[in-house]
Design a protein that fits this description.
This protein is an all-alpha fold and 192 residues long. Helix content is 81%, strand content 0%. The chain contains 8 helices and no strands. It is rod-shaped, with a radius of gyration of 37 Å. It holds the Pfam family Sigma70_r4_2. One of its GO terms (biological process) is DNA-templated transcription initiation. Keywords: Sigma factor, Transcription, Transcription regulation.
Length: 192
């Protein structure tokens, strides 16, 4: 059986003719597509799909010509389709990743605002002297020595009041203790 005879027989549904053409061209087509993909497994998959298409479109074959050019064209087009599909999937994944990041940033911003609000509420519940000392230190950036001088109290009292404030804040944020430093910085910057 030659290629033209195989095409005629295949058009009539002869599977042995298809098998003959498959055996004749499979390895060559895999080698050809591998020059593009640089991946033998991917090339084998593409060529297998090309042969499926070849069988499905057997009625379109020209009985007077070798199917070689048609098979190479199908395999190449299948390769192009694979690239387009991969690029589409990558683009979709990039869009999903970007949306997830945006959502996370928005969620983090909302959570941070909630934490700052909670911090303000906790500070408002502190005794007046304690509240004033923590605001002077963390909001206005005034050191302990200067706070002591301005308020007419000892540095030890300032330290003691700060300890009281931190204890209450730590207690309120016991599940968020890692964020305390960030919150104090945000609280301080947000209230200047």
């Amino acid at each position: 059986m030659n290629e033209v005879e195989a095409v005629i027989a295949m058009k009539r549904g002869d599977r042995s003719a298809f098998k003959y053409l498959f055996t004749t061209y499979y390895s060559r087509l895999v080698a050809y597509i591998t020059t593009y993909t640089h991946d033998k497994f991917q090339s084998e998959d593409i060529v297998q799909h090309a042969f499926i298409r070849f069988w499905e479109d057997k009625s379109k074959l020209d009985e007077t010509k070798s199917p070689k050019g048609y098979l190479y064209a199908i395999a190449y087009n299948r390769y192009i389709d694979t690239i387009k599909k991969t690029k589409k999937q990558e683009k979709l994944l990039d869009q999903i990743w970007e949306r997830a990041l945006i959502d996370r940033i928005e969620e983090d911003s909302e959570m941070q605002e909630m934490r700052i609000q909670k911090m303000k509420e906790i500070i408002e519940t502190l005794p007046p002297k304690c509240r004033k000392i923590i605001q002077m230190n963390k909001v206005q950036g005034i050191g302990y020595k200067e706070i002591a001088a301005q308020m007419g109290i000892s540095i030890k009292t300032v330290e003691s009041q700060m300890r009281i404030a931190f204890t209450k804040i730590r207690e309120a944020f016991k599940n968020d203790s890692v964020l305390l430093f960030v919150l104090f910085e945000k609280f301080r910057n947000g209230n200047k």
